[in-house]
Specification:
The chain is mainly α and 433 residues long. The protein is built from 20 helices and no strands. Helix 2 packs parallel to helix 8. The longest helix has 38 residues.
């Protein structure tokens, strides 16, 4: 009974169960499409992902957390009307920008002309992903997590159907077609998500949202919350965007071949990092449930509960981090073999795994900062961490240690970001008394 009354714990539990089932489906799908499309298609897809993440961050405008916070505080769904107008205009602009810049990004920055069709394909997925983000924020703010769970499951089922039916046909045409197919699956999964959310939405709220209107006060609140968060994520994604560019060009300069760089970078990101982020759905569940809970009790001045919820979030994240990274470290060879039929990333996991315990804590710190309106602090910390990472990639690449230069830079970034977040959070909690 006590668990049911605790919305933080129940919301977290629902999101964890949802995340676990969708992650399991996602792993099955990843195994299938990795074996269908082959290493070259996966490597090409991975090369485009930093650019995809950068533009997706801009196009979604931090809507899940922003809408979640505003609805939990204001309890007024009309903010979604203004958010929808902002998102539609922003996404139209982004599609135009991508069409203009795609040839240059593919040939001059990524050094891979075959990335061009993938960049064009990804631009058409952003409007749907962004609208879905607004609707996610609505349900997060209402602390109703069941629709999110249904949406995640529906998305994965649609993705599985597409991978089984369409991907083999595209793979026969070539690895570029296969990589484009992987991008376009997002179009259909996000559309599925939107349909599920609209079906689950309260009818009264749905009627209010259908009345498209623009409110200056709501717009101001959205910009005030979203801009620091988006800027912080843009900085992180610019770092992710520049990562393969700096790594590729520096490694080419010191004598590595393009084929080696493409395959090793693909192995690091698609296999090592993807495996280590398997438990991220647990952390995402805790983080998303934390934002409306902290915002609500902070507005009421109940600082005791604020501290209690933050402590609970860190304990959950740490236990999950320790457990999963230990399993992944010990069984890295069979896990990689089972998931991808490829164990080339085993050494990357060996050296990176335990630092990911700290990486999982980053998400908790970030959610807490958003809940207490300290997004600007997150921005500063992100900038510092990103600069350290990019400089690290460049310097260590000159030492001719291959993609291990990226691994070392990643570790430095994780340590610095978590340490700075810890220092600020400690000071803030001390201020609360």
């Amino acid at each position: 009974m006590k668990l049911v009354k605790n919305k933080f714990l129940t919301s977290t539990l629902i999101l964890i169960i949802s995340g676990m089932s969708t992650k399991l489906l996602g792993m099955i799908i990843r195994i299938i499409f990795t074996r269908i499309v082959g290493t070259k298609a996966i490597s090409l897809y991975t090369l485009v992902m930093p650019t995809y993440s950068l533009f997706l961050t801009i196009s979604s405008f931090a809507m899940p957390t922003t809408i979640s916070k505003l609805i939990s505080e204001k309890e007024d769904v009309k903010v979604i009307n203004t958010a929808s107008i902002i998102i539609i205009l922003l996404n139209l602009l982004i599609i135009i920008i991508i069409h203009i810049t795609a040839p240059y990004i593919a040939s001059n920055l990524l050094k891979e002309p075959n990335c061009y069709p993938l960049l064009i394909a990804m631009s058409y997925t952003f409007p749907f992903a962004s609208i879905a983000c607004i609707l996610k924020g609505y349900f997060y703010g209402k602390q109703k997590m069941a629709p999110h769970a249904i949406s995640n499951t529906a998305e994965q089922i649609v993705r599985l159907i597409l991978v089984l039916t369409i991907m083999p046909l595209l793979a026969k045409k070539g690895y570029v077609y296969a990589a484009c197919g992987l991008i376009f699956t997002s179009f259909f999964t996000e559309l599925t998500s939107i349909i599920v959310f609209l079906i689950c939405m309260n009818k009264k709220d749905l009627i209010n949202i259908a009345k498209i209107s623009y409110n200056k006060t709501d717009a101001h609140d959205i910009y005030e919350l979203s801009m620091p968060t988006v800027t912080s994520r843009i900085v992180g994604n610019i770092c992710y965007f520049l990562e393969p560019i700096i790594l590729t060009n520096t490694l080419l300069y010191v004598g590595y071949t393009p084929e080696f760089i493409l395959l090793e970078y693909g192995s690091y990101n698609a296999f090592a990092v993807s495996t280590l982020t398997i438990p991220s759905f647990f952390i995402a569940a805790i983080s998303m449930a934390l934002i409306p809970e902290i915002s609500k009790y902070l507005a009421k001045g109940n600082y005791k509960i604020v501290k209690k919820r933050l402590k609970e979030a860190f304990i959950f994240a740490f236990i999950i981090g320790i457990g999963f990274t230990s399993i992944i470290y010990i069984f890295r060879y069979p896990i990689l073999s089972f998931l991808y039929n490829d164990t080339s990333a085993a050494d990357y996991i060996k050296y990176l795994s335990f630092f990911f315990i700290l990486f999982y804590l980053e998400a908790i710190f970030s959610s807490f900062m958003q809940a207490i309106n300290q997004n600007k602090v997150t921005l500063k910390i992100t900038i510092i961490g990103s600069i350290i990472k990019l400089i690290g990639i460049f310097i260590f690449s000159l030492l001719k240690i291959g993609v291990y230069s990226l691994l070392i830079a990643e570790i430095l970034n994780i340590i610095v970001v978590v340490f700075l977040n810890y220092i600020y959070t400690k000071r803030y909690l001390k201020h609360l008394g």
